[in-house]
Amino acid sequence: MIRSHYYHELGFAEIGQMLDVTKGRVSQIHRRALLVLAEARGSLGGLDSSY
User: Is the pLDDT assigned to residue 44 strictly greater than 80?
Assistant: First the structure.
């Protein structure tokens, strides 16, 4: 989801068609994926600003 949206620049509607789900469902999955990434980042103590 994240890779398709940010790296491949696909819209939620396009991703939804690929996965056979609605645009709204893609939005829900996207939001949850961002939360999971933020939680993972927090559990690692943040990212070093030199990256």
Answer: no
